[in-house]
Automatic annotation (TrEMBL):
Keywords associated with the record: Methyltransferase, Transferase
Name of the protein in its database record: Class I SAM-dependent methyltransferase
Keyword Transferase among UniProt keywords: yes
Metal-binding recorded as keyword: no
Annotated source species: Compostibacter hankyongensis
Biological process, per Gene Ontology: methylation
Gene3D superfamilies reported in the protein's UniProt record: Vaccinia Virus protein VP39
MF GO annotations: methyltransferase activity
Amino acid sequence: MHQQTTIYYRSDIINILIKSFNYSSYLEIGVDDPALNFDKIDCIIKQGIDPNSLRRDILKTTSDDYFKGLKDKFDLIFIDGLHHCQQVLRDIKNSLKHLNQNGTIVCHDMLPSNVIMQLVPRLSNIWTGDCWKAWGHLRMTRQNLSMFVINTDYGIGVIKKGFQKLYVPRISMAKMDYSFFYSNKKDLMNILTISEFIELFDKSATYNV
Ligand SMILES: C[S@@+](CC[C@H](N)C(=O)[O-])C[C@H]1O[C@@H](n2cnc3c(N)ncnc32)[C@H](O)[C@@H]1O
């Protein structure tokens, strides 16, 4: 008999984390069409921001402007705005300041599958940008974070405050190129399979993965 395989998208991962940690507040940076992800998130308090928002409940602003003077904190922040490494790094650092105790940051598009897909400026239709460089930088420099990337939906990065063994060697984002990513990605990004993630976080799982 043919067993059907479940594909996990960002909304599935985010909903598993919200359920697993009993979270009640969610921020999405970069919403685009809310039907793609935002509307699928099951959380009591939801805030979305996007400078190109067409819907009134999604704030029309950039992440940098939104974070200026912000007092609110969130349980889960999903970073999926401008996919340039310097911007993603800034979004992660600002999100860490606005994360509740035991909160989680989720970052999309951390695993480009070819060199073109991660080029900035953008050349391809399917595009991850070079967000992976921001991730690599934090894996090399921030011992007080716990970070892994789930190998599904172009790479779903998960960050919590905690502890990690730093990735060596330490190089600057400017020196990171795709061949460095390709040769080092398993440990640089700390990649988990979807089964490993489900085993760790979704106690009620009965899926075939
Ligand atoms: C990849 S789309 C988001 C997709 C959506 N989160 C999803 O899961 O399908 C990226 C969005 O980020 C928005 N964006 C671009 N620059 C931004 C910035 N500086 N701050 C926040 N959002 C930004 C764009 O307008 C675009 O709609």
